[in-house]
Design a protein that fits this description.
Helices cover about 30% and strands about 25% of the residues. The protein is an alpha/beta fold and about 625 residues long. The protein folds into 3 domains: about 55 residues; about 150 residues, Immunoglobulin-like (Sandwich), CATH 2.60.40.10; about 325 residues, Alpha-Beta Barrel (TIM Barrel). The strands form 7 sheets. Strands 13-26-25-24-21-20-17-14 form an 8-stranded parallel beta sheet. Helix 7 links the parallel strand 20 and strand 21. The longest helix has 25 residues. It is globular.
Length: about 625
């Protein structure tokens, strides 16, 4: 008798016992009726005995649920690889999480869970990590978050990117769910090897356990405000108000901006993005960027009357102070004498007509007399205010991808009118021997194209060596590879730190961190590739990190650790170790190769080995 052909026992819990017995006897009669009677009776007795024993063994105890637990398939996955809903593993038994880093470093790990049944309330919990000589890292230093999925038009894939901060998450059957562990290594952690567990459990009975091992190196990473890597990701405070549905510059808005500023500081951001006129980007993101400086004029502004303008800096001052308090304090970008980006010369000024109580707009073009008169009046007032606040030395007038013809006009005007102001050119023309921009941002095409790199490398080297100036590189809506879009492999976000070191830049610039589309959760694409406008998401109570944002920070930390290893190797006169580090950089920064690329984890392990060999000297 083939028991596999019988109806599954647990499928008939609702049937009366008598009905179930009839079914079983009928199945037995169909199977054995052709045998002699004594054989039939013997086989029926054996079958019934087995079924009775089976029933006794499977019968639920009083008060217990009868739902059979469903197993959970779970495995450890590289943080540089996205988890999609159909994710699988060639090594599903991999339950090891291996981490290594400096004291004070923030590390990430990813595990993936999937089950043939719905998972109710999947939850990840980190244990205490036991270390050398009784040392321990408390479980509270770890944060478990869950990958949220958003639709990406370019791939037609639901893509994991936002890191949801929730007690647990429900997972439909047969769909993979990434679980993200973020571990902030305590600054006072004793060097050595630590171990613990990450436990996955659910209300539906599934569970899995991961072994966590952490090596803490005998060196501390500086706090993010003290990192040498210059991260300049443009902020859009107006976008925060819009996404969270609060009034711009209301107290609710300022509370949110404090949370965003804290997040930016923790990820190593260095620059403060401000607007000194209304809508300096001509609503290119679908809505205006509100001004932080209120322009006021009694009536209608006409040529010859610029001396009657007044300016209110309250919003500007509060935002700058808020960002500085969060550790974002290296530079204040001020936009803009001319709207951007590109070849437009529009430079309109919206102002409050204090006589009529309404807003007006004075239309003007960069270079024309009305524009010159307006800015000749405003720049001295701006200088005075910045000096009073102690911010003039870190402030720069910003220009977004303006071509040489327009920038020459700007430089001519600034040399004549306000030569002491710093200028920052993001793309476009950087200046000449009469006056250079104090900050220059070069597009990635100049890095990867050999002929273009040969032309700009001398500028990069000279600016990098000048402590008063900065040179960074950027990606924008192009190229599609490498970049930080929602369809970009996560390793490309980490790659940024390594490319910055390889080419000798001070850091990286990008627009933008929080310019949210109308509904970022249902349609994260505006008119540029998906993810071009933001690295964080508007959560219920403030910003939610993305996986891209965490990988960008990891790449910056790699840069800092590499810098520390390089400086120590130079001080120790260890040419062999410098060559080892250089090889690691070449491996990590490969753009194109036959194998899985870049080899960043291997390269970072090499840097760690060099630091361990050199110890804490330096």
């Amino acid at each position: 008798m083939n028991l596999n052909r019988l109806p599954a026992f647990h499928h008939h819990r609702a049937l009366p016992n008598a009905a179930l017995l009839i079914i079983l006897l009928f199945q037995a009669w169909k199977t054995f009726h052709q045998f002699p009677p004594e054989v039939i009776m013997l086989k029926i007795l054996l079958v019934l005995t087995g079924l009775i024993l089976l029933a006794l063994g499977c019968a639920p105890k009083s008060g217990e649920k009868t739902v059979k637990p469903v197993s959970l398939e779970a495995w450890s996955a590289p943080i540089e690889v996205r988890t999609y809903r159909g994710a699988f593993s060639r090594n599903p038994e991999n339950r090891n999480i291996v981490l290594a880093g400096l004291a004070g470093e923030t590390l990430s790990a990813q595990v993936v869970a999937v089950s043939t049944a719905d998972i109710r309330a999947l939850k990840g919990s980190l244990s205490e990590l036991a270390g050398p000589d009784g040392a321990a890292i408390p479980a509270s230093t770890g944060l478990v978050r869950y990958g949220g999925f958003v639709p990406v038009d370019e791939t037609m894939e639901l893509t994991a990117d936002p890191l949801l901060e929730a007690a647990s998450i429900d997972v439909p059957a047969n769909l993979a769910q990434p679980v993200w562990l973020t571990l902030k290594v305590p600054r006072e952690a004793k060097p050595g090897d630590y171990s613990g567990k990450l436990e996955l459990s659910s209300a539906s009975g599934q569970s899995a356990s991961f072994e966590v091992s952490l090596k803490v190196l005998p060196i501390a990473l500086p706090e993010p405000p003290d990192w040498s890597f210059y991260l300049n990701i443009w902020q859009d405070p107006s976008g925060v108000a819009r996404a969270h549905k609060v009034k711009v510059w209301s107290e609710e808005h300022w509370k949110l901006l404090e949370d965003y500023a804290k997040n930016f500081g923790e990820h190593g951001m260095k620059s403060i993005m401000t607007s000194i006129v209304y809508d300096p980007w001509k609503s290119q993101s679908g809505y205006p960027f509100d001004t932080m400086v209120e322009w006021k004029y009694p009536g209608e502004f006409k040529a010859g009357g610029a001396g009657k303008f007044e300016w209110d800096f309250k919003v500007f001052d509060r935002y700058v102070a808020l960002m500085i308090a969060a550790g974002v304090k290296d530079k204040i970008d001020m936009y803009a004498l001319v709207m951007g980006p590109g070849g437009t010369t529009d430079a309109n000024i919206r102002y409050l007509d204090t006589a009529g109580g309404n807003y007006r707009t004075a239309e003007m073009k960069a270079g024309e007399p009305l524009w010159r008169e307006t800015w000749t009046a405003f720049l001295p007032a701006l200088r005075t205010h910045l000096k009073e606040k102690g911010w003039f030395e870190i402030a720069a007038l910003g220009f977004d991808e303006k071509p040489e013809k327009i920038m020459r006009l700007i430089f001519d005007f600034m040399i004549q009118t306000a030569p002491d102001f710093k200028l920052a050119a993001s793309g476009g023309y950087p200046g000449d021997k009469r006056k250079w921009s104090e900050e220059v941002v070069i597009h990635i095409d100049d890095l990867v194209n050999p002929e273009r790199w040969a032309a700009v490398e001398p500028l990069v080297k000279s600016m990098h060596a000048d402590k008063q100036r900065r040179i960074t590189w950027y990606t924008a809506c192009m190229p599609h590879f490498p970049n930080t879009f929602l369809f970009s492999p996560l390793r490309e976000s980490r790659l940024i730190g390594w490319l910055t070191w390889k080419h000798g830049f001070d850091g990286y610039t990008r627009w933008a961190v929080n310019a949210f589309p109308e509904n970022v959760w249902l349609q994260p694409r505006f008119k540029w590739p998906t993810g071009d406008m933001f690295f964080v998401y508007p959560g219920p109570n403030g910003p939610l990190d993305s996986m891209r944002w965490e990988l960008l920070r990891q790449g910056i930390q790699d840069y800092e650790v590499l810098r520390m290893a390089w400086e120590r190797a130079e001080k120790a006169n260890r040419q062999d170790l410098l060559e080892k580090l250089q090889t690691a950089v070449r491996r990590a920064s490969v753009i194109d190769a036959c194998r899985w690329i870049p080899y960043i984890e291997e390269a970072r392990a090499t840097v760690n080995e060099v630091l361990l060999e050199l110890g804490s000297q330096g």
